Amino acid sequence: MKTVIHKAADRGQANHGWLQANHSFSFANYFDKDKMSFGALRVLNDDIIAAKMGFGTHPHDNMEIITIPLSGSLKHRDTMKDAWQAIEAGEVQIMSAGTGVSHSEMNGSNDEHLNLFQIWIMPNKRNVEPRYGQKRFDASARRDKLQTVVSSIDSPVDGSLHIHQNAKISRLDLSKGKTFDYTVGGKTQGVYIMTIHGTVSIGTDELQQRDAIGVSETDSFIINSKEDSELLLIEVPMH
Questions:
Q1: Does the annotation flag 88 for ligand binding?
Q2: Residue 60 marked in a binding site
Q3: pLDDT tens digits for 128-159?
Q4: What is the pLDDT of residues 192-223, one digit of tens each?
Q5: Which CATH superfamily is domain 2-237 in?
Q6: Residue 76 annotated as part of some ligand binding site
Q7: 58 a known binding residue?
Q8: Required cofactors, per record (predicted)?
């Protein structure tokens, strides 16, 4: 089993006042030649956005973009549907940029901060028609079991949102003292695991809040929970 450890404190950081950004991989003004991507996973940003602030209209193309609000409310508008749409904590949003789309992302609250993960995954099909999806996922359904929120449009997991890549994004809330055996979906796949909250171990490595580990070249691995923990797992092709 091959692993790479990314400690929370070693992430790229930017404080713009209205935006506190943490970058797991090279992004914007943060560059680390050893953190360009993990296979097809290109971006994992952990952003805190002040009330009423956000990102004005900007373009994307040929990227699968997934947004997961952890707390607060996001509002989104794009050129596919010129109306504001709310994405609340507990929901997941996907956008296949394909041939090109422009969008705006704002904190939908007048008085509360918004914390979200934004994930970019490189697609396996270029220049597809842009598409949008959004769905709420019940937290109780991931207590001590895997909840897949995003999967491949070519081999979809029931109940998940779909993107143009052989990828899978899952949530797992693991109780203290519990273990979980994750089966990787093929020899060319790897899994990037971030501890949202709590403490877990994988092999000899211990991961605390916002620490991450990339696991590849294995058929499976075991997660041990040292305390009640919330995990984000992103499985992607490594080549």
A1: no
A2: yes
A3: 999 999 999 999 999 999 999 999 999 999 99
A4: 999 999 999 999 999 999 999 999 999 999 99
A5: Jelly Rolls (2.60.120.10)
A6: no
A7: yes
A8: Fe cation
